């Protein structure tokens, strides 16, 4: 049963987009309005007889419907909690609460309309001139001006909507789904291209929808029937950047409010059509003044009668057609003024709506609707973003593309010229075919460059460049402004008078006048007003439009919501294997870069005292760890550290400092020698990534001849520092295979052994805290097991955990510096108090010349221990140290109240002449108070002699301990089971898209020359994965880098096999167990690639990334290895990342998979590869 | 965002790489004068045109690569 909703609603129209069988209600400023599905907010309101939708920005003039499209400046409304909704575009929905913006107290009676009478004070540049002085009133001005803001309101309680993101790699991206865009899409797809066709409105068809609905439907059906075209409606191509990096904003998806698509298109076809231009005359913004396209949209798409009695000013056939439409819709056309014959309008009368139209002939005709058809604007912005400079055509009375957008960007349709539908389609088809041809060339070069293809022969694309036909340009009168002044920019309320004033004040170029008046800078972004603005400026300057040139169109094409730009929030987070324990025991979290660490467990001072008195354990997993192997490691260490490394014995550890080439301290840490050619380097937690890159840089660019393999193992180990006088007792209770006695395992030594039943643990005897301490590096999957065993077996010793804050106090008591805290970006080696470590007699090391000069010439500050004379005053870090004249001569870099000494202790940087122990300093506190302080003899405030770490209590015998349990970084929720000693998720899913934790698989890393005999023996190269005897998968994960994946628990067997394979070649190669250093997961299902395309910018198409492809890229902003390994024809991907981010990656994939109904699958008992 | 032609991985978004600046050459440590050394540390051509640059493919093959890039047009040429 069809209903007719609204008193202005017409009978059924051939091209209408509303569903008359259904109707629903929403509210408009509290009043209930009925709409049909397919109605826009404004079409429903117009059908209901509403004429005023907003008040203008400055003068608060009533505004109505002008274009009835996305760009309608007067139709911005608030919908529920969402401001600035395009009422001419957004579809009405049941229950929506729509209200007008920028009106107070109501749309009908707006107090601020008084601004109309104050108009002469609100002219161009008003804000710049009026609100400058006095400066102290700025906050007041701001408050007053805020009240005039023409935007809606958002409540601070608005829930965060889901905004999505996706990458795409179409061969051809077509902006505009009108007849030209559709024809180009069909032609490009038929030529073999993958096409993305983007249309701003809710349907394809463009102007055909109201000029020839049957043709629109036919073309739309043809697009749907053509393979290889992805159609995105209600989506905007928002920007085009270098190398066709294209932003598409997709709106109103079922699962997300908006989605930003980042497309890398090989060819872009701009087919944006033409936008009708308003005419400038007195009263041109009165509700009831509409463009010819607006009335035709209303009548034909929404079956709304735009008025009762109309006057039409037409200069083109489209205007003439509008007259016919009006008559058909039952509107009385009182007069048609033909601009081609010199007829013109003077002004319209009426305030809240058109009452009469005054024409140049002197007639004044009563009417409630005045329709103008005075010309077009080519929205060339995407072409401009590609470097094109549009050229003004006086013949067409609009700008046309300059043809300089480059090879990869083409234009067709109304933007490019005029013509009949057949002419336009012919041009578009030729353009689409040529776009496909050019894309094929680009695709060939891309495929030839990627290592992931399966080796099939790539054939060069055929076909020769086509000469594109030229579209004719039809004559159109140049009509911009009548004899009266009117509004040029509706969004910003800028009149032609304002532009004249701007020119009079000297802003006589388009770019200057635009900025001074803000014309073209509102939400419409120039689409309606640019040409009128330029024409007005030309008129005021006495120049031609061509001489003036146009303003520059920049991204975005239309405003895009900030939510869409933000997309999904990808902020990788890293957790240690002991995180579940920390959380359970109420650790206060500390965000340190990507790491979440326990700052303390309630009372850091008590934690410190317990370390000094008994024994404490701290989770130091984030400490950077690099596994270094090869005969040339000592050369590398000598180059990167300021101290000497040639004579470091096996089992020995040394503290080292790295400086950059400018001599500034970059990082520090200890490095130990585990075997003949095997070293383990530690770095600061925050410097881990930088140091790795630094090491690789020196190896790859300066010394590619050195035989060194660097493997980051930071998260392959859970690191636990056991510190305190009872630490030997505790560690020895759980350690097998290492003699922990003071004589056998001295300070600054390293051993490997078994801790709490876990093999391959590395034990360092080092002391950041100043106590006897052992740093245990445990294969990460067993971290939680060892942590819990230490707590259990040390209960009688008083063991308790301590956090980062406790450690910071302990190290400050001991006077150990922290790079980046006690040094800064200017602190050279000799300013860091490490003079003893710098060996200037080495031939070369990084930063040496700068340190030689600092040593010779002095300069820079010195790091010293400082104690305030009044021990109860703790000067905040960064407090300045001043001399008697008040000049800054240093600063406090670290300060705490020492629980051991019960007094304030500090480290600080002071000028060299103040560094002598005993010197009295003046510390300027942030409160303004000055306090005295003394330079201490040593950096260490506690135990400067270092006796505490030399306690020689005997070790105890190993005790029975719990059986080790291996755990994945992805917590198993619900039912668990045990496979090869791993506690894993037992649930199973048969969903069509599944994500399963595969961390328990054995993973062995191999490094060797990318083209040597080891590479040959492994049987695969970078970019491809192969099955090895059916039992393992060998992945070419990098140039000269492989991963071997095997069944759970098989790592020892794999290691042996691979080591033998390497040894047999006699070539330099490294084999490392990475089972505990990587989180591994498997994504299986038809939509697997669609999911990955939401988090990964790499082209996952069948051609570029077929079965067996292996690559490393950024997935949800995390460096991730991706291996395609299909399962019985179903696409499947293995993804692995460094272990600590495993949970983050898993969650990011689940989030991206929601729209495809992803489910978590458990670990299969025998993982299939 | 531009793509860089990684000689190992193929074209990839520049956000996967870390820029290491123009290619420089390290003076001999034993004989470098302060002026030469600081020229190496701080002086760059900063040309409007073709520049040889070092990039590290942080999120990819983890190789340091050399790219010739036109600083105005962002055209690139790969050199391994």
TrEMBL record, chain A:
Residues 487-568 form the SoxA A3 domain. The keyword Oxidoreductase applies. Keywords: Oxidoreductase. It comes from the Bacteria. It holds the Pfam family GCV_T. Gene3D superfamilies: 2Fe-2S iron-sulphur cluster binding domain, sarcosine oxidase, alpha subunit, N-terminal domain (3.10.20.440), BFD-like [2Fe-2S]-binding domain (1.10.10.1100), FAD/NAD(P)-binding domain (3.50.50.60), Probable tRNA modification gtpase trme, domain 1 (3.30.1360.120). Residues 939-975 are annotated as: Disordered. Residues 579-842, 1039-1165 form the GCVT N-terminal domain. Residues 862-937 form the Aminomethyltransferase C-terminal domain. Belongs to the GcvT family. This is 2Fe-2S iron-sulfur cluster-binding protein. It comes from Haloechinothrix salitolerans. The lineage of its organism: Bacteria, Bacillati, Actinomycetota, Actinomycetes, Pseudonocardiales.
From TrEMBL, chain B:
Pfam families: SoxD. It comes from the Bacteria. This is Sarcosine oxidase subunit delta. It comes from Haloechinothrix salitolerans.
